[in-house]
Each structure stands twice: as C-alpha cells, then as structure tokens.
Amino acid sequence: MAAESGGDLAPENSYEEAVRAVPQELLRSGVWTADRPEHRALVTALATAISNEGRAEGIDALRRLSAAANGRPAWQRTAVLQGVKASSRAAQPAPAA
Question: What is the rounded CA–CA span in Å between residue 35 and residue 13?
C-alpha cells in the first residue's frame, strides 16, 4: 500500500520510516537548537535505536545528521555520535573481508 497524501505512512513501512524521519524532523525544528538535557537524551536514544536496527538507510541518515558540514549545532552532532557509539552494533567486531 502506498503512502497517502497528507503525511500518512504505508502500514508495512510506517515504523521504519518513522524511526528514520523522527530525528531529522526534530532537529529541523527551531525549538531543538537549544542544547537541553532532554533534547540530548532523546536524540542519543533515537540514534542508538536506529543504529541497533542496522539498516543501511538508517545508518546513512545518522551519518548525514552527524556530519560537521550539515550546519547543525555541535550538540546535535555529538548526541547522534554518542547514540551510535552506545549501540550494541558498535560493540560487535567488523565482519571479515
């Protein structure tokens, strides 16, 4: 089923799409430019969840969010990187080539 206009997500992809979209949408909001403990905690938790999921699209989104050239405040980039570092996948050894 395709996504309908108005922002509704298709049922089969709603969770995955929402998980990847939430950090991007939050961090675009002007309210989220302030470095507050609750903002940092939520961004870090979302980045950890996305990293734990291990999907390429999510990892790519985290890379974009943590890039220094993206113009986001430093605390946002740091929170994303801390979330990735805290993920269970970060503790796993890299696959042999």
Answer: 31
